[in-house]
Amino acid sequence: MLAIVALAATLTACATTEEIVPIPYAPAEVAAVPGAESIQVTVVAVDARTTNRQRISTKINGYGMEMAPIRSKEEVADVVRDALSAELKKRGYGLGSGGPKVEAKVVTFYSKFGVGILAGKSDANVDLTVTVTLAGGETLYTRELKGKANKAVQIAGGKNAAATLSAALADDFKTLFADEAFTKALAAR
Hints:
- The protein has 189 residues and is an alpha/beta fold.
- Helix content is 29%, strand content 35%.
- It is built from four helices and eight strands.
- It has helices spanning 2-12, 76-90, 158-178, 180-187; strands at 19-21, 40-47, 57-60, 66-72, 94-95, 101-114, 120-133, 139-153.
- The strands form two sheets. Strands 5-2-6-7-8 form a five-stranded mixed sheet, with helices on one face.
- Strand 7 and strand 8 (139-153) form a beta hairpin.
- It is elongated and about 55 Å long.
- Residues 1-13 have low confidence and may be disordered.
């Protein structure tokens, strides 16, 4: 019983105070793609969310009731664009004009907290629609990605929401870069 009271107190700490947090992203440790160094890619991200546009999560109290919003320090589209750019650079692609354009449309970017017996949970969903087009406008590739991540948490706060969202974004990019059709579209001229 004491553990439940302690969890409730932890989850409700500062639950009424809005939080603005950065969403750190580290690209995957991968080898460069052969020939990528000769390809310039333009990366664009668009925030197309229809719900939760003003926040990335919501704090909850010990009873699971929603409290204060958690917002991203940067625009969500900028977070996604920068993360995708980092993934492309890690694989050896150049960033700039003259090659294909990769557009990531952000459909969902949200982490939801829940209450548990000994720990709470953070479930994040990052849904993107990624399109690759040539300079003339011809679409070479389109794919919907449904990145998910979850983790046990003691505090329903911004740092935990950001970490889970970053993991869900990494899940999207793992799927994207494993798709041979995506890398072929980047190499098209």
